[in-house]
Design brief:
Elements: H1 5-24, H2 29-39, H3 43-52, H4 61-72, H5 74-89, H6 93-122, H7 124-152
């Protein structure tokens, strides 16, 4: 797999942000989650739509979220448990969703910065193996041939 879980986490973070927009627009939690999953185009949202089932015969929200959390990963499980707690304690779900998306983005940004810090080290091998020999052949070899020919005359 060329893409790791941080990309999927980014899809979950975007999905949470879209959920928050729909929820703040006045939709109920179930409808906001469904619309966000339909609007977003990430693997996490496609899996959420699959877990929710068709609109006519929709699964209960708790069951669909727990199944989604089990298939997508740790951030989805965190989203599911946070939504469950927010709903049971009467806390504003919009605030929770916004903070969850922000935390996910900060974590993704930190991982990407760490990767960017390792980039010069990982690009050193191709530079040394590919470009340096070509550079030496194009610059030093003609100079050495000229010097050798000058010495033999």
């Amino acid at each position: 797999m060329s893409r790791d879980r941080t990309v999927d986490r980014g899809g979950c973070a975007d999905l949470v942000l879209v959920m928050n927009v729909y929820f703040a627009s006045g939709f109920g939690l179930h409808e906001a989650i469904r619309r966000a999953a339909e609007y977003s185009v990430t693997p996490a949202s496609e899996e959420l739509l699959r877990c929710l089932g068709p609109r006519e015969a929709s699964r209960p929200l708790e069951e669909a979220l727990s199944h989604w959390a089990g298939t997508v990963g740790d951030l989805a499980a965190h989203i599911e448990s946070t939504l469950r707690l927010g709903e049971s304690y009467g806390v504003s779900v919009g605030t929770i969703l916004h903070q969850l998306a922000e935390d996910s983005r900060l974590e993704i940004r930190a991982v990407r910065r760490q990767r960017a810090g390792r980039l010069p080290i990982s690009s050193l091998l191709p530079v040394v193996c590919c470009f340096l020999p070509g550079f030496l052949l194009l610059t030093l070899v003609p100079v050495l041939i000229g010097v050798v020919q000058g010495l033999t005359l």
